[in-house]
Amino acid sequence: MNDAAAILEARKGEVGGPYARYVLGVLVLVYVLNFIDRQIISILAEDIKADLGVTDADMGFLYGTAFGVFYSLFGIPLGRLADMWYRGRLMTIGLSVWSAMTALSGFAQNFGQLAAARIGVGIGEATASPCAFSMISDYFPREKRATALAIYSSGLYLGGGLSLFIGGVIVQSWNSAFPGGGPLGLAGWQAAFLAVGLPGLLLALWVLTLREPLRGMSEGILSPPEPSPWPKFFTELSSVIPPFTLVQAARVGGRAFAVNLSGLVVVVLGATAMIMLTGDTLQWGAIGIGCYSVFSWSQSLKRRDPPTYQLIWGTPTFLLAILGFGSIAFVTYAVSFWSAPYAIRTFGADPAIVGLIIGGVGAAGGFIGVIAGGRLADWAKSRWPAGDILVATLGVLIPAPLMLIVYTTESLTIFYLAFTPMAIINSCWVGIAAATSQNLVLPRMRGAATATYFLGTTLVGLGLGPYFAGKMSLVTGSLGMGILSLLVAAPVTLVCLWVVWRQLPQAEATRVERAATAGEGRAAQA
């Protein structure tokens, strides 16, 4: 204890200090690039559809499901690795992988190749936020955490906005200069993927220089380093990725295998029913893989680390927060992806101008909204135990009428004017959701909590939202109606957040006690 206290005393000045702010700045750049590489496919959608002959539902699959399912699944073992290994090194590896796969997207010649590259981008990007959330939570105290995580999360909007501007300019310039295809026969959308993918390899070297914070130093709960992280990582990986999930459950034997197999049967039946209903085999096959893998991981975690399981899967407040924020992401991810194609298709707008305006509004508005939301949440939480959840709820209620205006108006000017406040308010919940996931667990569990948080925002939000809007666009014959159909998620969001608002203070106050009851102190050595 004396050694731990001395170490904490020696480095306590780093918490919230200049170096902490420097690290936060670098992590924001990483997240900006993360979303440039993720989001650029939005402004390229019409060109990709024309070249590869795909539908709106296919584009929703490429942007959302192909990326999102594997992002969320690999986020589980990689999030756990972030709890045990050097977070800066892990982020460096992931950044290199997703940047290379983004560049490779530029050489895709068909739907399958582009889908495979998007899966690779998703796997690489799965390292970023578990590492970043954990590092930021160690570098900033609880009372400033929502603001710090909101600043980090602003990279989502800055990157998303920049991607539309960069992609629109590159596509228009490239196609004008090379109407029949440029060097190596590349079309404009392919050149755009290359242009945004390669710089990430340089940024990865910068990330590698960041100093690793002591785990738990912002709260005075020093967690010792894990002496052998890799065996535990591969165990975690095998608990998520089929068919290794069945092999691991079979090794445990007895009830564990029966429960795992039963879960697989239920998911297969559900996915088969959705495939028969929609005809979209890839979409529901991928979602089925995701659902089964999540179930398998939760059951494995219950056996291997009961305290972590208890604070995440055994805490209704945590699960309802994940579902509630995931249902918000269901809307916001789809709106983020489809707004640029909607403006181009509905108003005949120039892609470069659309990228400039929607990208600029999305970047500036999202940045303002997420920072303001984080600051307002910290202020509200200092006065009411769950005041931050009230702020998030406003971010659901206020944008709904603005969406009705944006996607029904016949005026491009009104579209832009209403889109601006919608973009600002739509983003206020992001830092609140991130801070909630971190505040409900112990320091050594933050990577796992982040991975679980992204199961909601990615598997539910990204995996279903863009596809749902695209599918409804095909059914109704109107992309605007497809986007507005997303509002069916609003009642789910409001009910979940209301329950979280009531239960959050008690759940936060009892986390140490509940972890101890589940065996904390023994599980870490297992």
TrEMBL record:
Keywords: Membrane, Transmembrane, Transmembrane helix, Transport. Residues 23-508 form the Major facilitator superfamily (MFS) profile domain. Its main location: membrane. The chain crosses the membrane at residues 21-41, 61-78, 90-109, 115-137, 149-174, 186-208, 257-276, 282-298, 318-340, 352-377, 389-408, 414-435, 447-469, 481-501. It is found in: Membrane. The keyword Membrane applies. It is a multi-pass membrane protein. PROSITE patterns: MFS. Pfam families: MFS_1. This is MFS transporter. It comes from Sphingosinicella xenopeptidilytica.
